[in-house]
């Protein structure tokens, strides 16, 4: 079955001839708009777009990302921001824009990922907090739009904790992509715990208005590789329809991990400043001995300590906490007195918990 207006079909055909098949895939259509997926060559991110039937007299609508290629939390939001900026630059009412939009987004994404590779200690979340231009941040627009949306009637599960991660799932009855977009926007702008979660995995499945078209279904991993696809597959097995599911994952770091982090960061700071091999060997032995007190974390601590080379680039966060108050805290702490006097701990505990957890996984 042919999907979309004749002009949009021609543009999709041209785009696919230039960049490869399924660069622009027209999925479903209603009386108001056509839903599509934009997959750009050599880029890990794919986007969901909607084309009003008035296009190109009105611009396409950016609905979000379908996949970020496992790039991590925050990358989907950042990629959408780059796409919105590019669209604002290239779109002219009455003129088709997909080729120019694709070229502009490919250039921006390539620059973004190049910058990320040059700054490995900068997290995706840090980068997503930095606007590319002096334009309103997408999260601000989302929050403003959500303020006028009636609260969705979610059905929630009880929290489930597995391996120090807590999962909460919520489901909502939906009948259109607009309802999905509005529900997710409202959830992220009104629930701080959900907005700050490690991952918000989404999947949706709806019966098409045209019975012959089957289902409108898709997912968003939000940086949790393959999780959205698995969630959608489960919905398919259960023959669920007209439902949006959001699974929120929050990682927890407890007291034992704080203790481990303090020890690991302290020795790394000291090794960065001291190259005496005998002293380093002595510090390693002392740290291994001390770790016996914290038997639950002994294996992980040992793994850190016995690495032949410490890469200081992974621990630049420590430079933010070299404060006299934290030094004094540790010097008065009986545990730290087990180290030789020339070891001066510099940390009161790492604040970049997500970065530390990534290093320990």
Characterise the protein shown here.
- There is one protein chain.
- The longest helix has 21 residues.
- The chain folds into three domains: 130 residues, Ubiquitin Conjugating Enzyme (Roll), CATH 3.10.110; 97 residues, Impact, N-terminal domain (Ribosomal Protein S5, domain 2), CATH 3.30.230; 106 residues, no CATH class.
- Helices cover 42% and strands 18% of the residues.
- It is an alpha+beta fold and 361 residues long.
- It has 13 helices and ten strands.
Helix content: 40-55%
Instruction: Please name the CATH architecture of the largest domain.
Output: Roll
Global shape: globular
Task: Work out the helix count.
Answer: 13
Please provide the count of β strands: 10
Beginning-to-end CA distance, first to last residue = 47 Å
Strand fraction band? 15-25%
CATH class of the largest domain: Alpha Beta
Structural class: alpha+beta
Main sheet summary: 6 strands, antiparallel
**Low-confidence segments, ≥5 residues, pLDDT <50?**
121-148, 253-265, 268-275, 290-361
Average of pLDDT:
67
Q: Which H/E pattern describes the elements? A: HEEEEHHHHEEEHHEEHEHHHHH
- What is the domain tally? 3
CATH topology (level 3) name of the largest domain? Ubiquitin Conjugating Enzyme
Rg from Cα:
25 Å
Layout of helices and strands, plus pairs?
Blueprint: H1 6-19, E1 24-29, E2 33-39, E3 46-52, E4 61-67, H2 75-90, H3 98-118, H4 124-128, H5 138-146, E5 155-156, E6 160-162, E7 165-173, H6 177-190, H7 192-195, E8 199-207, E9 215-220, H8 227-237, E10 243-251, H9 255-273, H10 277-291, H11 298-305, H12 324-331, H13 353-360
